Amino acid sequence: MNVPSLDSITLKNIRSQVPQAYTLTQRDISRFWYANKGHFKDTCKSLSETMHWRQEFNYDNILEEDFSDLVKTRKVFFHGNAKDGTPVLVWRSCKHFANPEEREREKRFYVWILAKAEKEGLLPEKVTIVYDRTGATHANADLGLAKEVFPLFQHHFPERLKNVFVFPSSFLLSSLWYCVRPFIDTVTAQKVHIWKENEYQSKILEYIDTENLLERFGGTGVESTGTSIGTETVKIIHPHPPETRCKLEDHVATPSPTEVL
């Protein structure tokens, strides 16, 4: 289900309480409101923390950074859409090798992918992730990165995840999930589907049509090559009309306590 848009009065009240969020659209703020179950103070607190994180992370300039070396690894790329219209992001575990010294840059790389997809209009709502563990070994497991990336996206990019399909399962995967699970809220954890090797090809077809599914997963889709992250394979779908960012001078005065209760 797509996140419903926030009403204009509540939106103005939130923007007046968190003025640094003027760069966010109504849809952006609606996601924080929905993730915080419509609680005004929690929404403002969450937004304030995210805007502070964006400043420290230098998020506004991340698209200027060069990640061409990581793009060429083909460890993460988009390929087509799921049946519900969400773009599909494929993450190939066997292409990733844990390196604590590169963890911060790896983290920025994943944020860069999301920012790039948003700029190109590919993420009007949510994303479906296919986490392919075929051929993965202990060398590809990166618990440290997982512990940082999951909370980062959960806290600063709420209501962006539709589903995560993980396969094939193994004892190593079960152990990793056991360690990561406490860092993920219940709603997000319920979106993670872990499948065995003998069932994932039939299961995934319930969510993704064969033409949008790569051949290695039992579909007919051909993987992109070169320096692309696959955004050209995604159909752009806009369930809501485009929005512009709010201007700083559009802010209203701080609401009275009765307006925000």
TrEMBL record:
Top-rank taxon of the source lineage equals Eukaryota
CDD domains listed in its UniProt record: SEC14 (cd00170)
Q: By its UniProt entry, which InterPro entries does this protein fall under?
A: CRAL-TRIO_dom, CRAL-TRIO_dom_sf, CRAL/TRIO_N_dom_sf
Q: Which residues form the CRAL-TRIO domain?
A: 66-225
SUPFAM superfamilies listed in its UniProt record: CRAL/TRIO domain, CRAL/TRIO N-terminal domain
What's a Pfam family in this record?
A: CRAL_TRIO
PANTHER family reported in the protein's UniProt record: BINDING PROTEIN, PUTATIVE-RELATED (PTHR46277:SF3), OS03G0850700 PROTEIN (PTHR46277)
Could you identify this protein by its name? CRAL/TRIO domain-containing protein
Classification from the root reads: Eukaryota, Fungi, Fungi incertae sedis, Zoopagomycota, Entomophthoromycotina
